[in-house]
Records
---
Amino acid sequence: MNKVFKALSDPTRRRVLQLLRQRPMTAGELSSHFEISKPTLSAHFATLREADLIAAEKTGTTITYRLKMSVLEDALLSFTQTFGLEFKDRTSDRPATEPRERET
Amino acid sequence: MTKQPALSSLALTAMALPVIAGAWLCFVRPERAGLWVLAMLFVPAVRLGIRTASRALGTTRIGAAILPARTVDAQKMLSGAIVVASLVVALPLAANLADALGLIDASGAHAIATRWTNVLAGGYFVFHGNRLPKILTPLSGARHDLATMQTVQFRTGRLYVLAGSAYAVVWLVLPAHLAQPYGLAIMVTGILVPSAILRSYARRGVAHPGR
């Protein structure tokens, strides 16, 4: 359970889970929603996989990520969003308080 | 053939409970020894059956394709099911044992066994519902679009969790004569509503419903 809390504590990882709630996505599709480098994003994916919150499936050269959350873990994610921890997509209205996550 | 991970130590411990209670009852109430032996060996026999079946399935082409992706999750589900099944069998045995040892009377033993067996059944529904969205179909084997499948799994899981919780609470707080009809109504609803959801998605085919 510690791994789950650790995974949910980061806004980027929560955003990844939010995006995967809509549908399974490839690594490329997911990365287009973030301004962070691909290695950093891969590290986030690894943390989520370690917590067993997402699953990855490789088809040729494409890796598709999909949600693998229990009902309780989903409720925990909703809980963090309810308390104003939700971060909006960079392509939509970005809250002024959102930290920039660009890496060099 | 896929090597399956071992059952959790909790499941193995739980499996021992009915065996111990049953063996003890064989000594204190030998006139019903056949029943006690049947009860104490029920869960290990089912476990053996599942193990044999999954090994046989692992040798087939389809089984070999499906099992590696699902083995760990399936084993977790199996461990949970074994814990609950063992407790469900062990509880009435323990109540009978308490009755035989003069700790409680027969009606008390029956009431305790009925109430806690039903609470456990509700708990199992919650456990199963909670883990339901974690069971993933391999992408290559998916017959419907994955967004729909994901939505259906989450909705079904939530309904199972709600129904199981309500069932357990009803059996915990209400008197037995009220808990029985209300519990039954909750369980029937908890099974029928997810079935209706599944059927509606199956009829609609590919769709992208919101969660």
---
Amino acid sequence: MKTRALLIGLLCAALAIPVAVVAQDKPRHGGILNWFDYGDPGRLDVHAESPLVVQQATAGVYSGLLHWDPDDPSKIAGDLAERWTVSPDGKTYSFHLRKGVKWHDGQPFSSADVKATFDRILNPDFKSPKCGASLKPLVASVEAVDAHTVQFNLKAPVGYFTGAIASAWCRVAAKHILDKYGDLNRPEAQIGTGPFKFKKYDRGSVIEWEKNKDYFIPGVPYLDGVKQYILVGGPTQVAAAKAGRVHLWDAWPPMRKTQADEVKGARGEEVEVYRWPINTIFVLYMNSKRAPFDNPDMRKAVFLAIDRQELVAKALEGAGVPCAVLDPKLVGDFALPLDEVIKTPGCRQSKDADLAEAEKLVKKHHPNGIDVEIAVRQVGNYVDRAQLVIAQLRKVGIRGTLKTHESAAGYASFGKGDFQMIATQDRAMDGTDPGDVFHVVYHTNAGSNYAQLSDPKADDLIDRAAKETNKDRRKQLYHELQRYILTTGTTGAVPVGWVEGYFFRDKKVRNFKPGLTVYDGNTFMKVWLAQ
Amino acid sequence: MKRRVAGAIAAFVRRQPLGAVGGVLILVAVAVFAPQLAPHGPKETGFAPYLPPSAEFPMGTDQIGRDVLSRVVWGARLSLYVGLTSVLIGVTLGAVWGAVTAYVGGAPDSGSQRVVDSLMALPPIILALALMAALGQSVNNVVLALLLLLVPTAARTVRSVALAVKQFPFVEAATAAGCSHARVIVRHILPNCLATYIVLVTTNVSYAIVVEASLSFIGAGAPPDEPSWGGMLTAGTQAMENAPWLVLFPGVAISLAVFGLNLLGDAIRDLADPRLRGGLG
């Protein structure tokens, strides 16, 4: 953890990113921060959903047991838990909860709420693609020891458990609300303990929070509220940024260089533009349960045919790390050295040998080529990426037709396995552990295993690496896992690259510190607006 | 015969110079049907993105490295395909529907006109959007959506002409001579509605092109990878300041095509209208 924190610190310094926009003046109370969501969340259940917009819509409303420290985003700190202890065998974590915390409806908070929350998330019958997917393999049971102590019993000791609990998706919900509504989808069910109360949700238009005057940390939040406009599509988002209608652009989709230049050109010195890795991997999925990609040869053909370098160069305007399963910038030497990665099949340049082999594989099963429906959500620049994918696959005899989905409808369709190929999905990590990407994308039970592939060897390596406490052995296991994914090419999820991008902050926004994942740093509990 | 055709064309050019210009523009547009004119494939992404117009790429390249000229050329093909197909089928169906119901009259005519009223009551772009949402994005579905927009208009217009034609003595004579209803419609009613039909076709092709471009612009028309002028405009808005050529050329193409078609439609309307043909005033 220390090494990663150091790496991240170095990264920030190297990129000259204002990780600490140091307060040069006294925090000022008041004002509304204007922000945006890239789409309409539709459903709001942070435990049951995985789109970023759902987490964004509710980020300031809830608290976690732990969270990534708003004062130092590379550190884990207590949130509802004042402190925590670990048993000597590393299998029992006891969280000592803050006293006197109240839900937004005035009800008192207690360990019963924590137990109800995590019993819900860990229920095998409850689909929880983020928090559940991350915790279910780790946690055996949760017990409320007394009104202010909760105990998590792990299946095995794992070093990254606190990181998993600190995930922005593992927020604590009120037992009485879960009992009343059954889920957290409705706006009226958004009763949290966070710095802001959920005030309003106009579908397709705006989400508003208002200051929680009874927040358990005295003196914060500084803002009177936050407005999140639902702005769909790059041109609309850029237009809002240029017109000064939003104070910051800190979440997915990042701006591309040309867009950042436009915003800087329009706003000049009023804004600070910076480049930032958002701990997000760009993945192409093939449905291993449906023809033609139920055939490993066809999955391999696509794996070989995709030109990651072209996709990163054009779709991300170069802001990304092509081919990597793990980004060394984010996880240090847990990642395979990029020198090795760029020599692997599918990634190596030139593409001639890989394209020839891919074409041979396609011809072996489909002598006249094959028509494939390629699905994509209409968000960010996914449609541009999909067109590049189609052009690349055409070279090996795979004729793609594009099927576009509205954001939420796309997720619903992908979750049901109703597709042949998804041209592009950015999958953001929930934490900073090197195992995250495997638990998010590659494990059979991964929350975003849209490929629906169950690969016993990959699962075994992922599970062993997760439980390994010796750093060197863990590193070896992750290296083996990355080599396995990069050389077999049949896992159904092609790692196109790690996404970086450009963001901006209006200089009036003070004490904003970008999180290490796209889900963190957006509660705005300690952010204020200068006059 | 050749001399007569040449004479007719010369007379048309003399009397309707703007119509002739429109016709020429359409001919230019039709000429781009030839894929040979496009230097590259419309979906070929092998070039650097955002290259400004140059000798190599006269209209520059787009955000994923496709040649804009090639896409504009192929976009003309798509626009004319959508425009001509939908209008020829839609106006023909509508014309037959209008002529037949006008001839039959009575309750069937009245009933069918209520159907036309219902279809025309819906705002065209909303109806097209709803249809595209139901049918899914494809070029042929755009044609289908346009058919539903065009058929009722054509039916209503041709019906009004057919109602007048029905009263002429030659129709009465044909009926008295024992002609079947089908023969009267095919041999006497429809041919006398031809001028209106031609005007409807020429004026509606530009309408169909604009609707297709509008649907594609809002992401509900042709699939995004198809070289549709409207779709190109949408993609171009992503970088309008840094790469204005992405919106300029498809925008100019839509404007020229619609302008040309409207000029031609106006000219033909003038020719077909006896009051204007006679040179009033």
